[in-house]
């Protein structure tokens, strides 16, 4: 993928991840740590009970992190498939005898289209993630 296009996607995804972390994940981390601390304050609990309590406290955050990772992987896979399709079209075009400058322009245009389409998916993906994270946090 052209470096400029890659940078555009990376910056948009980074911005989205920061927003999700700040607005959702961070609150869940605070809850997890406070919950874990309260587990440790139970002087009557056995070591195993404390450990299980801490595990229960950590479960929502682990679920949230897995959700975010899964969404980002799906997004990355879709973008990679799109750019792979562009590479295949460029190779077919070269095999058909087209000149390299023309093929490079076609490839760049195709990749730019992929990036544009996937940039438009980010707001919906963000909304979906935040809704899922909100339901986990309850």
From TrEMBL:
Question: What gene codes for this chain?
Answer: Fam136a
List, alphabetically, the InterPro entries matched: DUF842_euk (IPR008560)
Family the entry assigns = Belongs to the FAM136 family.
The protein's name in its UniProt record: Protein FAM136A
Annotated Gene Ontology cellular components are: cytoplasm
**Span of the signal peptide:** none
User: Which Pfam families does this entry report, sorted A to Z?
Assistant: DUF842
